[in-house]
Amino acid sequence: MSRRRNRLPREPVEAAVDRLSHEGRGIAQVGERAVFITNALPGERVLFQYTKRNRKKAEGRTVEVLEAAPERIEPGCPHFGICGGCSLQHLPPEAQIRHKAQVLAEQFRHMGGVTPEQWLAPMTGPVWGYRRKARLAAKYVPAKGERVLVGFREKHSPFVADLAECPVLDPRVGTRLQALSDLIASLSIHDSVPQIEVAAGDDQVGLVFRTLRELSEGDLRLLRDFAEEHGFCVYQQPGNESTITPVHPAAPRLSYRLPAHEVEIGFLPADFTQVNAEINRKMVDRVLELMDLQPADRVLDLFCGLGNFTLPMARRCREVVGVEGADSLVERGRQNAGANGIENVAFHGADLTRDHTGASWWGNGFDQVLLDPPRTGAAEVLPSVAATGARRIVYVSCGPATLARDAGLLVHNHGYRLKAAGVMDMFPHTAHVESMAVFEKGD
């Protein structure tokens, strides 16, 4: 006997929203199920349409707000609710950062069984025009007058949202989506350009056009003309990231500055750099404040990337050893050290999921350690970090759950205290939580 399909109700359903999920969706209890509803806030009564449902939980989208929460505001972008780039524009920025702080506190309690001795003040910055890194989708759509759509994908959909502009993107790009659309539409391979990678520095903006077919000479001329007209650094990418090559200018240079530390960081468009330049500057400043580096300190910087923290730290201490898994970033770190005239730093490539306590660069001990891992966290390397006997560990995180897990390991297994922690609003209008924690060796 076949199982009866659990069909979704066609008519909207009324619900009272009582809390906000970590992903920024309102949660309502409807019968025996918790329903996660987009564009709904705690304290509201909404009509929602089911989009997914199983025995234990369901998902839905708000059709109408019957009773609005006092905190609800008008979204700042006309595409909010359709475009999948943002999830919290209906909540004021100060309420967004409070929510993110609550998420971090809950994760510390539930995942790590720890509480910071002190909460750091939330780090905030611009909430519009902040996004310097993005992967924009592009799609030739004959049904829309043979237009090319350029932007983020629609919420919970593979379709590209029809955007006139994007106010969270760096305005050098966010106000030129139509120009990018027109450019791709003019190419002979307009149906074979699926994405544009945005990588903006302080002075120049890099745009990488992913292509599925070879660009003609006429196409290359159009790209060069576009680059000159708008002041962009334009690249083509016919295959994987190793195939990225400049179209115009011939030798582009992307970089950003950390003025308080007299450091300029050069990067290539596919390199990892922080999305929000102002928050990044504040973040580097706070890391150095928390570390309180002394001239005799030797510091280990794990997951160091291209030197974002490594080089400013080296200005203040005896030596910094930066370790990174991507060889290309190791090379970029070395180049940046040379360009800034910093000699008391060494960059090494290593798989940081393995034990490297026998490596030559690991010896001689470390006074402090900086961790800036990917979303998966740093659990594998923590025993080695603890074995250094470092008096202080500063941990910069893009995943609150893995930070909380690792905090529990450092506190319960390795004798460190969770001295302080706090959140950073690296991605306003999204539910993404960036945070920082400082650990000190227990007495």
Q: Residue ranges: pLDDT <50 for 5 or more in a row?
A: none
The CATH topology name of the largest domain reads Rossmann fold
Number of strands: 21
CATH architecture of the largest domain: 3-Layer(aba) Sandwich
What is the highest CATH level, the class of the largest domain? Alpha Beta
**CATH homologous group name of the largest domain:** Vaccinia Virus protein VP39
Shape: globular
DSSP helical segment count: 9
Order of adjacent strands in the largest pleated sheet: 6-20-21-19-18-15-16-17
Distance between the termini: 66 Å
Class computed from helices, strands and strand pairing:
alpha/beta
Order of helices and strands: EEEEEHEEEHHEEHEEEEHEHEHEEHEHEE
- Please describe the biggest sheet, giving its number of strands, its sense, and whether it closes into a barrel: 8 strands, mixed
| Mean pLDDT reading | 95
